[in-house]
Specification:
The complex is a heterodimer. Chain A is an alpha/beta fold. Chain A folds into two domains: about 220 residues, 3-Layer(aba) Sandwich (Rossmann fold), CATH 3.40.50.300; about 90 residues, 2-Layer Sandwich (Alpha-Beta Plaits), CATH 3.30.70.100. Chain A has eleven helices and 14 strands. Chain A has a six-stranded mixed β-sheet with strand order 6-7-8-3-9-10, sandwiched between helices. In chain A, helix 3 crosses helix 4 and helix 3 runs parallel beside helix 5. Chain B has one domain. Chain B is mostly helical. In chain B, helix 3 runs antiparallel to helix 9, helix 4 packs parallel to helix 8 and helix 8 packs parallel to helix 12. The longest helix of chain B has about 35 residues. Helices cover about 80% and strands about 0% of the residues of chain B. Classes of the chains: A alpha/beta, B mainly alpha. Chains A and B meet through helix 2 and helix 3 of A and helix 1 and helix 5 of B.
Chain lengths: ~300, ~260
């Protein structure tokens, strides 16, 4: 449904994305994952025909985003990073306007607006001025405008940014409901969010694709090892050496004084042994827990892996 | 056509739901009314003096002495007011990131531009309509010629169209409304006074400068003349401004 080939975009001398290629099938829910400035928004802007690419092609349903952008714009619903809200308009009027802009006939626009108000739980604020709403509601109005014409493809740029946890859960639920009948691309720099919604992940870093994979294989790829955080009251110079001698331990690094990151083999389950070691040496255990991988770790790992392969 | 109206309707809504339209209209009407009253006072003073000296009344003409100068003054007030109406058209959309909504919708860029042009013209049309009381009063109490009044309003409206197309162009250049207003005011004033260079510029260039000046063509309309050359001038001026706006917005996508 969406085919991207060798897509590049540069702003002056700065290359935002370089030779991106990926495909998205109908009905898929795909997550763009990457740190801020990685090129997620640029890619989404090109896909939603807001700006042309410097080189390469992108096709949606067989239409080229540059040559036949008008056809594509009928098919997509787009929520940019900053929701495109007219702050002086009333929620209801704004959504009707968005529907009319997207070729919904004047007869069908009111029911379409009602439906989307229901879907995004905007009932209580339907007659309020958008500028006076909280960030969470504004974000929901933004999602509502992308949905109002019932597009086949939804492109959501950081849909949950700026929301409180409860709202995030609601939006997630909404996207999951939509997933059954839509093709959805959404971006985020928060890993758990992507893992909950998307079946497939495209990781972008520094304008390039670091990995395209299904979530399962990505997680198994990342779980090549386990990581533990160990915090103690005391430690000496030999502590790190002693920890390294444990079986199944790959590396030990001292994060702060008396705080160690222990990388070990998968399913090592050596917590008992570590604890025993600490007690035996009278280091005084404070904390021993699995350390979750942050996005940075994942990028580091992925990019390092790639470099290793290249070598 | 439908898409143009969708854009126009939203823009009109934002004019009428905010104090912008009301404050600008108030300023326009007060200035316009003040000038009209003064011109009329001057005229009645002269008429009174003429009554004292019979035979000197030739040349006292309501059209020439009241209506024409009123129109000329209105053109100057519009020169000041219209940049404030057009400045937000694109600058605000860009600033508040709402332009992405329009650009990602199945609607042509030219429809967006025409929609915004139409919205500004309707707002200005309304303002001018509200000021019609002045000529209406003259028709009620005197016998001015109706023809030049009607062509005067037509000329005024066409000239406003030129201001608006320059204003939209200025607004497409930036996301800052103040800069947009400054540029469009500068452009409009320059196109108004460009004829001043005519005397120094030599016969051929001088004629061209004279032709390019907005005010030259307005004069004909105020005299009651509808020349096709004036119509061509105004329409091509407006289209050229809108064309430039289109180019600027299209090219800003590439940057």
């Amino acid at each position: 449904m969406i085919e991207v080939e060798q897509l590049s975009k540069s702003y002056g001398p700065r290359e935002a994305i370089r030779n991106l290629s990926f495909q998205i099938k109908k009905g898929e829910v795909v997550g763009f994952l990457g740190p801020n400035g990685a090129g997620k928004s640029t890619t989404m802007n090109i896909l939603s025909c807001i700006m042309p690419a410097s080189s390469g092609t992108a096709r949606i349903c067989g239409f080229d985003v540059f040559e036949q952008s008008l056809e594509i714009r009928k098919l997509i619903g787009y929520l940019p990073e900053a929701p495109p809200l007219y702050l002086d308009m009333i929620v209801h009027d704004y959504l009707t306007f968005a529907a009319r802009l997207r070729n919904v006939s004047s007869k069908k626009a009111p029911p379409a607006t009602e439906k989307v108000i229901e879907q995004c739980s905007l009932k209580d604020v339907r007659n309020r001025i958008i500028g006076k709403l909280s960030k969470g509601f504004q974000q929901r109005v933004g999602i509502a405008q992308a949905l109002v014409h019932d597009p086949d493809i939804l492109i959501l740029d950081e849909p949950t940014i700026g929301l409180d946890p409860i709202q995030i859960i609601e939006i997630r639920k909404l996207i999951q409901e939509l997933a059954s009948s839509h093709t959805i691309i959404l971006s985020s720099h928060i890993l758990p969010e992507i893992t909950q919604i998307c079946k497939r992940v495209i990781i972008i870093n520094d304008g390039q694709i670091a990995a395209v994979d299904s979530l399962e294989s990505l997680t198994t790829r990342l779980h090549k090892g386990e990581r533990l955080l160990l915090k103690m009251r005391r430690s000496d110079n030999e502590t790190i050496e002693i920890l390294r001698t444990l079986r199944k331990v790959n590396t030990v690094t001292e994060q702060k004084a008396s705080e160690f990151i222990i990388d070990c083999e998968p399913h090592a389950e050596i917590q008992d042994e570590i604890a025993k070691l600490v007690l035996d040496n009278n280091w005084g255990i404070v904390e021993l827990k699995p350390a979750s991988m942050t996005l940075e770790d994942i990028f580091l790992k992925l990019t390092l892996e790639e470099n290793e392969v290249k070598r | 056509m439908k898409n143009i109206w969708i854009i126009t309707k939203r823009d009109l809504g934002s004019f009428f739901n905010s104090p912008v339209f009301y404050s600008l209209t108030t300023v326009f009407l007060i200035l316009n009314g003040f000038i009209f009253v003064n011109i009329l006072n001057f005229f009645s003073l002269q008429s009174f003096q003429v009554q004292q000296r019979p035979g000197a009344g030739i040349g006292l003409n309501l059209n020439e002495m009241v209506i024409e100068p009123s129109f000329q003054n209105m053109a100057v007030i519009l020169l000041l007011i219209i940049p404030l109406i057009t400045m937000r058209s694109f600058a605000e959309e860009k600033k508040s990131k709402t332009f992405a909504l329009l650009l990602s919708s199945p609607i042509h860029l030219k429809e967006i531009i025409l929609g915004k042009f139409l919205a500004c013209m309707i707002v200005i049309g309304l303002m001018i309509l509200l000021s019609v009381y002045s000529t209406g009063y003259l028709i009620l109490v005197g016998q001015p010629e109706i023809g030049p009044i009607l062509t005067g309003y037509l000329g005024m409206f066409l000239m406003a169209g030129c201001y608006v197309s320059m204003g939209l162009f200025a607004s497409s250049l930036t996301d800052n409304q103040i800069i947009a207003a400054a540029i469009s005011f500068g452009l409009a004033l320059f196109m108004w006074i460009i004829g001043w260079g005519a005397h120094a510029a030599g016969p051929e260039l001088g004629q061209l400068l004279e032709y390019l000046a907005l005010v030259t063509h307005l004069e004909h309309f105020l005299k009651g003349l509808i020349n096709s050359s004036d119509l061509v001038y105004y329409f091509s001026f407006i289209l050229f401004g809108l064309f430039l706006t289109h180019r600027i917005l299209e090219s800003s996508r590439w940057r």
